[in-house]
Amino acid sequence: MTITVQKDVFKLAQVFTISRGSRTEAKVLTVKIERDGHVGWGECVPYARYDETLESVTAEIEGLPADVTRDALQDLLPAGAARNAVDCALWDLEAKQAGKRVWELAGLPAPEPEITAYTLSLASPEEMQAQAAKNAHRPLLKIKLGTPDDMVRLEAVRKGAPDARIIVDANEGWSAEVYADLAPHLVRLGVDLVEQPLPAGEDDALLGMDRPVPVCADESCHDRTSLAKLKGKYDVVNIKLDKTGGLTEALKLRDAALAEGYKVMVGCMVGSSLAMAPATLVAQGAMVTDLDGPLLLAEDRDAPLTFDEAGVHGPEAALWG
């Protein structure tokens, strides 16, 4: 068996801005695993917030034994981007070797389309209202906030898309006081969900606070070991494969979170259809699906995921799984 990793760059359809900065392209790592004439593929997006770089993640992957198995991988690498790409490539390889689809191997039903959020880039209120109006036909919009002018932007988006469901992502940009002040306005404007309002290291402030809008843990939730620290603070957990370290742990986290009474959101970094494909299996029946990465790109993989009025569909075998 051979494992190779390479950097791929996908141009974005437009500049994408969050409170942490702007980008014009998505830089990803593509993993290819070959064994006995079969090839498995996986993709990850290293994230600086978690001290990951393209170089550090590449080194982690290249340091693995050539005969690594999916079970052994869970202990060889920590939860994160490197394990994600390899785990998903091994799932793809196993499916091809077995002549089955990944969901069959995992004992899951074939994925049905799920309505996905579409993320509006952070911009001036006027620009965000225009973005919202342009995308008002989409049933679910996501707004990146975490600035001193959040309410003005939120009001503008609601004006531009009066009928869309809205979720907001503060990207750890608020304090407990800011969240408490904004919460009634979020209710008034019909916001369905607030993602990670406080920094992960300061979210104890959520204990005992009223949460009139469900609060979702993103940076505070990586894998099953995170759950014990979320009690009393969050209502929803955001499962991203680049955080869990692949599909294997993502499915286990979903089941554990649901068993503990949390609702589930399935999110993504800005990557291609190859990165989203495994996540479509996790997203089945989720409270919120946020797998819009390919919709933000100007270019994508061959055999990309299908997005239509029914939502994001599961992958064709030519792409993954």
Written account of the structure:
With 321 residues, this protein is of the alpha/beta class. It folds into two domains: 2-106, 2-Layer Sandwich (Enolase-like, domain 1); 118-312, TIM Barrel (Alpha-Beta Barrel). The protein contains ten helices and 13 strands. An eight-stranded parallel β-sheet has the order 4-5-6-7-8-9-10-11. A three-stranded antiparallel β-sheet has the order 1-2-3. A hairpin with a 2-residue loop joins strand 1 and strand 2. Helix 1 (54-62) crosses helix 3, helix 5 runs parallel beside helix 6 (150-160) and helix 9 packs parallel to helix 10 (273-282). The chain starts with a strand and ends in a 9-residue tail after the last strand. 48% of the residues are buried. The model has no long low-confidence stretch (mean pLDDT 95). Belongs to the mandelate racemase/muconate lactonizing enzyme family. Its EC number is 5.1.1.-. Mg(2+) binds at residues 169, 195, 218. It is an enzyme of class 5 (isomerase). Its cofactor is Mg(2+).
Topology, please?
Layout: E1 2-18, E2 21-35, E3 38-44, H1 54-62, H2 70-76, H3 81-98, H4 102-105, E4 118-120, H5 125-134, E5 140-144, H6 150-160, E6 165-169, H7 176-188, E7 191-195, E8 215-217, E9 236-239, H8 241-244, H9 247-259, E10 263-266, H10 273-282, E11 288-289, E12 307-308, E13 311-312
Helix pairs in contact: 1-3, 5-6, 9-10
Question: Any descriptors?
Answer:
321 residues, alpha/beta, Enolase-like, domain 1, TIM Barrel, eight-stranded parallel sheet, three-stranded antiparallel sheet, 10 helices, globular, isomerase, EC 5.1.1.-
